[in-house]
Amino acid sequence: AEGCSEMARERKNGYIAKEEPKTLFEDENICVILKGPGWIVSVSRNTAQNKVLASILRTRGFEDVKSLVQSGKCEHLCHFVILKFKDNKGFHTAEDTNCE
To answer: Are 29 and 64 spatial neighbours (Cβ–Cβ below 8 Å)?
Structure first.
């Protein structure tokens, strides 16, 4: 699999085109997401690391999924989940840094 650094070198000015991840299955307990290249999956059982990832999203100023997808950079899939499901009362764990 091609990493983000390799993707950036191959593209003009380092721009990385990404597609919005797709929800394959969703119920009250689980959501299965299909992601393409350009998305980093790095959420872990390390709560401190998850808090750092969540704070990065706030400092970069993304307000919606569209701006994240069109950023031209590799982005963290957890940021997509936070933005996509933040207003969905059924997914209270989307912004919970204690959850993987």
So the answer is: no
| pLDDT tens-digit readout, 30-86 | 889 999 999 988 766 777 776 777 777 778 888 889 999 999 988 888 888 888 887
The string of DSSP codes covering the chain is ---HHHHHHHSGGG----PPPEEEEE-SS-EEEE--TTEE----S-HHHHHHHHHHHHHHT--SHHHHHTTSS-EEHHHHHHHHHTT-TT-GGGG-TT--
- pTM for the whole thing? 0.73
Please say whether the dihedral angle defined by the alpha carbons of residues 2, 15, 82 and 54, taken in this order, is positive or negative.
positive
**Strand 31-34, strand 22-26: pairing:** antiparallel
Q: Which amino acid is at 7?
A: M
Per residue in 26-43, pLDDT tens?
Answer: 887 788 999 999 998 876
